[in-house]
Each structure stands twice: as C-alpha cells, then as structure tokens.
Amino acid sequence: MWPFICQFIEKLFRETIEPAVRGANTHLSTFSFTKVDVGQQPLRINGVKVYTENVDKRQIILDLQISFVGNCEIDLEIKRYFCRAGVQSIQIHGTMRVILEPLIGDMPLVGALSVFFLRKPLIEINWTGLTNLLDIPGLNGLSDTIILDIISNYLVLPNRITVPLVSEVQIAQLRFPIPKGVLRIHFIEAQDLQGKDTYLKGLVKGKSDPYGIIRVGNQIFQSKVIKENLSPKWNEVYEALVYEHPGQELEIELFDEDPDKDDFLGSLMIDLIEVEKERLLDEWFALDEVPRGKLHLKLEWLTLMPNASNLDKVLTDIRADKDQANDGLSSSLLILYLDSARNLPVGNAVGAPLGAPFLVANLAAFSHTIRYKTNEPVWEENFTFFIHNPKRQDLEVEVKDEQHQCSLGHLKIPLSQLLTSDDMTMNQRFQLSNSGPNSTLKMKIALRVLHLEKQERSPDHQHSAQVKRPSVSKEGRKISVRSQMSASPGSGDSKRAQPVEASPQGPRDLGRSSSSLQAVATCSPSHVSVKEPTPSIASDISLPIATQELRQRLRQLENGTTLGQSPLGQIQLTIRHSSQRNKLVVVVHSCRNLIAFSEDGSDPYVRVYLLPDKRRSGRRKTHVSKRTLNPVFDQSFDFSVSLPEVQRRTLDVAVKNSGGFLSKDKGLLGKVLVGLASEELAKGWTQW
Q1: Entry pTM
Q2: Which regions are flagged for Polar residues bias (predicted)?
C-alpha cells in the first residue's frame, strides 16, 4: 500500500498544507512545495491492541504502535525571499488510535473511520536550510520545536481525521463527539521531594523549587512554582476534557525550576478508567522514576448530564449561586459546532468571513480558518467552553470580514435558553443581527451539566486506596501505581523464601527443565536464597490440593510416563528486540496444564523481570485470569534496553496464583529463566 499512501501524502501537502501555510502569514504568500517524496521505507506497525472492555458494542477501537523512519525529500521555497529549505528525514513514533464506528448491518459494515493520536507522537525532523526559513520577517519568533508542536498537535485529540464510508453517517457527530466526561484535578501538595539545588559547588545540599506539568491528551496545565520547599502546597484546580477512554491517561511530571535546565523530580500516570469507576479519588500517590517523593491529588470524574435537574445543586457545590463572577469552577460545558453561514452582506468587495465565536466570560476562541471570497462560508469547526453559571452567561458570536476588519453580523444567545430546550441542544439556522435581511448562521449548540455521581458501594467495598492504577513511565513502561496503604500480604512485599533457580538458561531448552524440577518442589531450607521477596512453591506447598497434585505429577515424571512433558505446566512467550524502538518486547500469550491451587483451579497471572533489575519500576504484570489452569493473556510488555545490553541479561518469568485479597492461596505456580544471548533476538521467536 505504501506507494498509494505516498500519492495521498503528496496530495495532502499540495492541496491542504500549502494553501494553509500561504494563508497563515502575509510573508508566506509565495510559499510552495517544489518536491514531495516520502521515500521507499514504509510505515511500520509494531503492535495492535484491540479493546474489548468498556467500549460501545457499535464500535471497534484499535491502538496501533506505529513507527516511521524515512529518508524523504521534501523541498519548499518562498519565491518572494528567494528562500529554499527542505526535509531530509522524518521519524514518527507513537500510538495511533483507529475507531471504526458506527457498525451497521449492511455492507461495508463500517460507517466511518476515525484516526488520531491519543497523545503527542514523538516527531524528529532533519531539516536543510531551516535557518534561511527562520530569517524571513514574521517567522523569526518560530523555532524547530514550535513547528514540531504545531504539526504534532494537529494530529492529537480532539483533532482527528474522519473518513466517512457511508453517506448517511452523521459526520458532524463523529468528527466532533461530545466528551466522555470532564476530569477535575485538585493538584494539592507533595511531600519528601528530592533536593536538587546545591550550593558551594555541591558541598551543601539545598532545596528544590517544585512545579508540576499536568497533561490529559493535548491539554497541558502548569502549576505555579513554590520556592525552596520539598513539601510544597499548590492547592490548584484544573479541568480537562476526556474524549477517549480506555487508553487516555492523566500524566503528571514534577520539576525543580532552575535558571538553566529544570531538574526532574518524579512522574505519575493514572489510567482514567479507574477514576471513572471510583468517581472520586483523594489519595497520596508515590512518584515513579525517583527514589522518593509522593503527591496528593483529589480527582473528580464529572459526568455530562443532558438535563438541568442537578444544576442548582451543582451551582451550590461550586458556590456559583452566591458570587457574581463568571469564572471559577465550572458547572457545565457548552459544545458548539459552527457549520456555515448564508447570505452574508456584501460590501464593495466580497470579503472573507471569519467565524469568531466567543463567550463574554473573557473566554475567546476564534475560528482560525478564513474562507476567502465568499458570502456563504462553510467552517465545520468545533468549540468547547467551560461555563461557570449558565443562568447568567451569554454566547456571543460575531462574523467578521478579515480584509476590511468590519463586522458582517452578530448573534447573542442567553445560555438560559438552552436550559429549557429539548436535550439542552439547539440545532438550527440563527438570524444574524446588524447584517443582511436573510443572513443566517447554522450552528449546533449543546449544554451539559457537570455532575459528580456518587458511587454505589456494596457494604464490603474496600477503600479505594486498594485500587492498583496502571501507570506508564517516560519510556512507556507499565508499572502498578499503588497508594501507600495498599501493600497486601503476599502481593510481592512479603519476605518469603525462594527456591534456588534450576531452570534452563536458554529459550530453546525445554527438555532440560523437567529433570531439575524435583529440586524446586522438594527444596529444603538449606538450599534457599532469600533474594526475591515473592512467595515460593516450597513455602506454600502446605496447601493439600496443590501438594497432592504436585506429588502426582512428579511421580509420573520419575516413572517416565510424562517424560518430555513439563510437570508444572508450560508458558508460551514471544520474545524479540525492536531496534527501531530500542526496546525488548515480550508477549505473554498463554499457559497450559498449570497446577490447581484449590478445588476451583488457580487464579494465575504472570510477572516478568529483566534481570538483574528487580526494582518495582522494572516489574511487569499481566491481568489475573480467574479459575483456570490454561489462562490466555496475550499481553505485550516492553523494556527500554539496547540490543548489545539485552544480550547480556536474563528474562525472569514467574507464573503466580493471585488468590483473593488477604487470601492464603497465593504463591508461585512455576518459573522460567530465559537467556537472551541468542542471535535470533532481532528476528524474535515464539515458543512454549
């Protein structure tokens, strides 16, 4: 497909990007691409994840791990300044989400396709002649990083490329979906941060000047800086739109402000599915990637309600009923889809109508897209406003002629009108005032009240601090973020004995493993090493069912009846090293013939370390598969490590029984060490 994708990319550059650049700045009016060649090296898809839980049955959600490393030739010139520049190579790495929706009962079964990045992809561009380009008047404030930000933000939520496959699909609904919810983030305080500032050339340890960067999709917030404090109190509140979950995360990084380069103080990533389930979380979280430090957050998941029944309560909760201000916490969300205008007045020349919707609460959001030489412009753009009190605020929209800087019409809608409208939505042509007699603006506006639903809890519900939150560190590693209270006995924190390893060193070596298993099963205290704080089979063998089954299997092994079989069962893994991503990728497929820990079977999960790293941040875990001896996981994990280094390391894979919370039935079901010195690591292999 690559040659045809290249044809599409060339059209995109010439027909969409070129006119947009020309219109962006008067100095760029003679901008053009002289050559667009994206190269022979196609885009790679390194992995695909399909969501099966928490998704609408009328949609399919895929996440594609994509990487593109291409030697391309893209030449551009600006004739007016005799300036030439170009791009020699581009690298793009990121997670691209593809949504097929709605699914329909007729060919082609899929109504439309939406494509976007969940968070900013990593983009590296190798320019030629960039300095000539940045010398042009009006561009000298630009830089390489600003250009990269503009490009990557164009691809990140809520921006998306939507391709309709069926004409009846309401494209506006797909291109500009109503957010799934609003995340209110109370960024409260931190404790025990690292002191990064030093005095007298490092002899005296000082404090830090911490601040936080908070990200949800392409929404970025930055807290104030607290000077010289290792336990800062910020007490700030942010509100972010959540368009997509599963997969969207709250990402927080703490830094120490410095005159030169700000030092890293820790990070945290929280899966928003957990916040949505809990509705309200108020907890201390341990920071990742640093030896110490914790962060206090209060997170509220606000549901978008299409009726005003809860509005008065919400206004009271955020104190909007008392004050006269139009800012503060939001009680509701206004979603506006600006479609088109008709019969705009024509002055001496047909101007360039520019839709500029803005709210009187000093919240200005301009439609940047100017439609040239027309009195019937089509914008198809979407705007979202946080509203403090809809009973008092108005939406004001003005259509302007960019060339003559004059108004072509004006519209004012009190938001209280929406409160009484059906579904709190208006979708119509609005008559413009101070305009032509038939001048109209077609818009769809919807108001949604932000409501914090109370979680229905069963009487035996444990405190939310026991929720394990998946978190991802900078390299994209999945770690389990636990609050300080959640260390449960046997969850990897108990100091219990571990049998001496007697398993094979190589991935091809299943034969040898069976002969050494007796050492594992009948291990006496004199052989144990106490290095790994995980429960072992030997120490849990007091469970009668497991003991009985293990003895039976070992007896079969001695009698030769199952020689060549593995008496503790087997695990199927795919292992490969991706040189492009500089990562070791381990896919845990499934296990078979495991030992039953109780009459109901076992609750197995798989834990993986890349030895010698046994820190918590280096641990990868699958989900727990309930009551089965043949679990299927199909989960992929990666470790950031180069090929020469990984060939000196060993993969430690353990299958463990989860048991319930505080259950005695925890322990090791079996373990294998896989040496990674194989020449075939770059190609990869799959094996039981």
Answers
A1: 0.54
A2: 481-491, 512-527
